[in-house]
Every structure is written in structure tokens, then in C-alpha cells.
Amino acid sequence: MKKALLTLLAFLFAAPAHAESAYERVLKTNTLRCGYIVYPPETVKDVNTGALSGIMVEKMEALGKVLNLKVEWTEEVAFANMYEGLQSGRYDALCSGLLEKPERARVVLFSIPSNFGVTHAFVRADENRFNKGFGPLNDPLVKISTIDGEIGQSIATEMFPQAQQYALAQMNDNSMVLEAVATGKADVAFLHKSSAKIYTENNPGKIKLLSEEPIRAYASPPLAFHPDEIKLKHLCDSGIRTLLLNGTIEKIIRKYDPSLESYSLVAKPYEVIN
What we know:
The protein is α/β, with parallel strands linked by helices. It has helices at 2-12, 22-29, 55-67, 84-88, 102-105, 151-159, 175-182, 193-202, 230-245, 248-256, and strands spanning 31-36, 44-45, 52-53, 70-76, 93-94, 109-110, 115-124, 143-147, 164-168, 188-191, 207-209, 216-220, 224-225, 263-264. Strands 7, 8, 9, 10, 11, 12 and 14 form a 7-stranded mixed beta sheet that branches. It has a 3-stranded parallel beta sheet with strand order 4-1-5. A hairpin with a 6-residue loop joins strand 2 and strand 3 (52-53). The relative contact order is 0.18.
């Protein structure tokens, strides 16, 4: 009886079983499992083969090499459900170059930025109502094309609360915000120049840049993790820092954006003194 009681007490007060962290899993398998959002030119998915390419894909391939890890593109997600796989452990990191916003930092742990993203405003080619800057956009008669959960929606909500929003579902390609403008369903959309360039190459003469002045700039960490994964963040930060200092990140970005119209580089954290 006494032995049975001691056994029961030992069971009741035993330390809970250790749950394997993403960091431990990555080191054990030498594989970093990525959730990703298709968002050209960051991440492009071939509709026929499913093959991925783009700035983010090349960054992750380079990061995998310096960390001696295999990068596995595990699951395509949308802005609305991108955090779910981190919570459930379906993937170890969200590898999509999210723009850093305080509300996102409440639910994920960001890596250090690999660059900064610059967003511009685009209107129809024959649009002349907004030639006096961004102020006239904050009007109930103006309709802004957005994608639910995407950065353009945040800009519209924060900067132009009086305007209407023509909101598209999360799984829409980012070019669809421009298509809504071109077809008259909306008046303006907010996007990277490089993303707009892809659209205008296939649809010449339909839209134009409203102003050379960016409407917003954001830090762009390439990775987001579960809030508890500080060790995994530290590991990946080390690799990203290496790629920044050896020029790999700049080389990848300039391959897609030679004149740095849509992306700004992270300043080097040192000064060479002769």
C-alpha cells in the first residue's frame, strides 16, 4: 500500500514531459521547414510545376548554406492564417519577408531585417484627381484596392480612414489590387514598384505611379518564428548577419531590383577608417 502511494505521488508530481522545440527539431533534422506566402517578386510559384523562385527563395537558399541546413518549403499560407502553422508546429518559420509592424510583433518573433521595403501608390493611367499629393485620397468618394491582412490594407486603414476599401480575399495575387484599379473597381492601390512592374509589363498603359514619394517604408525581416523560439531566431540572425556583411543579400536584391526602387539596403554597422 505504501509503495503504491509513493508511486502515485511520484506520478502526480513528476515534471511534465519536455516538448521538443522548433530549434531542437531543426538541429536534429538539419532542416528548416518554411511556411510561405506567394507574393511576387518575393516568392513566385510556377502554376504548372509548383516550383518556387524569387527574392525570398534565393535568400533562404543562401541562409541554408551558411547555416548548413536544408530549407524545406513545407506549406503555402495566406496572410489570414500565416501564424497558425507556427503555433501548431507544422513549420518552423514563416519565410516570407513580412514587413515588420507592431501588431505582428505581438504574435511572432521577427528575425533581424535583411532589407527595407518601400511602398508606392498607383492609380489608373488617365487618373488626374490626386495630383496634389496623398491628402485627397482620404475622402469617402475614394476607393482603395486592398488584400485582407496585407500591408496595403494597413496603410489604407491608418492613413486614409475616410476612404472606402475594395477588399480582396487573402489568396489573391498582389497584382489583383492593380487590376481592380485598372478596371475601375477601385481608384488607388499601394504596392512595391517591383510588383507593379510585373503587372505593367503584361498590361501596358493601364496604371501609373501616383508619386515618386514613397507612401510608407517598413523594415523587412525575412523570417518570423513562434514567440518562444528565441534560440532559433538567434541562429538565423547569425546567418542573416553573415549574408548582409558578405554582400550576398545586396546581390540577390539587385538581381531583381537593380536600381533599388522598391527595396532599400541595410546600412553596414561599421565604418572603414584609413
